[in-house]
Amino acid sequence: MAPPYSPSVRRRRLSAELKRLRAETGMTLNDVAKHTGISRANLSKIEQAESKTVPTPTLNKLLDLYRIEVSEVRDAMHELSRLAGERGWWARYKDLLPQMLPDFEAEACAFRTYHAQVIPGMLQTPEYAGAVFRANKVREDDEIADRVSARIRRQEVLKRPNPPTYSAIIDEGALKRTVGSPEVMRAQLQHLIHMAARRNIDIYVLPFAAGAHPATEGTFIVMDFPDPRDASIAYLENPATSLYLEEDHQIRMFNDMFGNTQGCSLTPVQSLAFIKELLTTLEE
User: 16 phi and psi, to 5 degrees?
Assistant: First the structure.
């Protein structure tokens, strides 16, 4: 099976490489524009990963200017450019998924997430996800079905060979809040127990007894990538927009927030026992 790729990650990598190559020559964007005939505005978009693709003639001009003569390197750069322009399975759900999120999920090697209100989407059952989407009260059944299908499809990254690690802190309130029905919650808790048995998944329950904690300001996801050239990303979402952060100080802040909140949580073994106890209560 071919490894998954992310157009957005590939695009970022290509842009970072071109920016690095220019920096090594000591040239400014104006210098490159003068030598290649490519406008400074277009060069800036390429280096900021705002261009969806880099045309082959444009890329060749840049590689020639930067004196990249090794054929393997040039071929690799063109491959990055080609993949950056391809769309993955999520293109079908582009109106239903937060922009770029599945792109990044497809290539992430590690997830750290905190959820306060509901079970993390990556760990939801179809019935639970449907109940979450239905709570909006304005969505049609067909739209809800499509959203559930997209969410379940995204979960496949956790089940692939050599899967990413997934560490989730789940607030006690999310576990005790009945979403859908008691039957839906029983199946959801059982699913969490099943997922927690996977070697790549750790679940931490944040109990009410922890009181105020470092993540009181809300849900977030931090994603790492296998290539060190790809910066980690922190993802935040609200009903109006999605926000991606990747500056070093921002990632440090969210990593600290996750680590400190993790320290307030039950261990994975304790969390599993907590979830099993909740399940027993529901069954009774």
Answer: -65, -40
Contact predicate 119/248, CB 8 Å: no
Pairwise CA distance, residues 49 & 140, whole Å: 36
Q: Kindly report the pTM of this predicted structure.
A: 0.87
Sheet with 242-245, strands from edge to edge, namely 201-206, 165-171, 110-115, 220-224, 233-237, 242-245
Structure tokens belonging to residue 240: 């109006």
201 has which bridge partners? 166
Give CA–CA dist 245/70, Å, rounded.
34
What are the DSSP E strand ranges found in the chain?
Answer: 110-115, 165-171, 201-206, 220-224, 233-237, 242-245
What is the CA 210 to chain-centroid distance, rounded?
Answer: 27
Tokens of 246: 């990747």
Cα–Cα distances in angstroms (integers) from residue 139 to residues 75, 89, 135, 181, in the given order: 46, 23, 9, 19
Residue 269: strand, helix, or coil: helix
Q: How far apart are CA 172 and CA 47, in angstroms?
A: 43
Task: Specify the DSSP class assigned to residue 163.
Answer: P
Say which residues have a Cβ less than 8 Å from residue 8's Cβ, sequence separation at least 6: 49, 100, 103, 104
| Distance from C-alpha of 70 to C-alpha of 141, rounded to nearest angstrom | 55
242: left (phi over 0), alpha (psi -120 to 50) or beta: beta
Dist CA 254 CA 234 (whole Å): 7
Q: Which of 134-138, 215-219, 236-240, 279-283 has the lowest mean pLDDT?
A: 236-240
The Cα 1–Cα 125 span in angstroms is 26
Q: How confident is the model at residue 3 (pLDDT cuts 50, 70, 90)?
A: low
Closest CA to 225 of 246, 254, 241, 204: 246
